[in-house]
Each structure stands twice: as C-alpha cells, then as structure tokens.
Amino acid sequence: MMFLGWIVLSIIVGMLATDRTVGFWGGFLLSLILSPLIGFIITILSSEKEDIQYQKILREEQMRAIAKRAVQDQEGE
User: Fold this and answer.
1) 67 Cβ neighbours under 8 A, 6+ residues apart
2) How far apart are the first and last CA of the chain?
3) Using CA atoms, how far apart are residues 51 and 55, in angstroms rounded to an integer?
4) Residue 35: what pLDDT?
5) Dihedral sign computed on CA atoms, order 67, 68, 69, 71
C-alpha cells in the first residue's frame, strides 16, 4: 500500500512539474527515486518555463538596443 501511495504522489509531483524546467518526467523520476517530498521541493525551486521565455525575450531586446546604439554611434562619428 505504501508503494502505491509513493507512486501516486510521484505522479502528482510530475504533474506539478509540467510547467517548470524540470518537466513531468524529471519531477516524476526525482520523486520516484528520491522521495515525493524531495521531488516536490526540487520542482518548486525550479524555474517556470514562462519565466525563462520572458528572460530570453528581454535579453534579445537588450541586445537589439545595444546594437542600435552602436550603429548610431558609428554614424555620428
């Protein structure tokens, strides 16, 4: 019975991890191998996929702004 509970909790942690960088299989396997509690903690500490996408877009915009300023500086010389 304890084994069944372990698996069910691991599946729940995997489902919670789907929107994070760990992903379903990462969260599920971590929970299954280590423990559902440790898998849950690792899942909660991992970044959300939306945050990473936002940071990537922000970096690209910053790089475009830097490149635009560099071109303007060269044209001004």
Assistant:
1) none
2) 77
3) 6
4) 94
5) positive
- What token pair was written down for 26? 């990462």
Q: Which two tokens stand for residue 7?
A: 């698996």
CA distance 21 to 28: 13
pLDDT of residue 59: 87
Domain ranges of the chain: 1-46, 49-77
SS (H, E, C) the chain: CHHHHHHHHHHHHHHHHHHECCHHHHHHHHHHHCCHHHHHHHHHHCCEHHHHHHHHHHHHHHHHHHHHHHHHHHHHC
Alpha-carbon distances, residue 67 vs 57, 71, 75, 77 (angstroms): 15, 6, 12, 16
- Give 25-72 pLDDT, tens digit per residue: 999 999 999 999 999 999 999 888 777 777 888 888 888 888 888 778
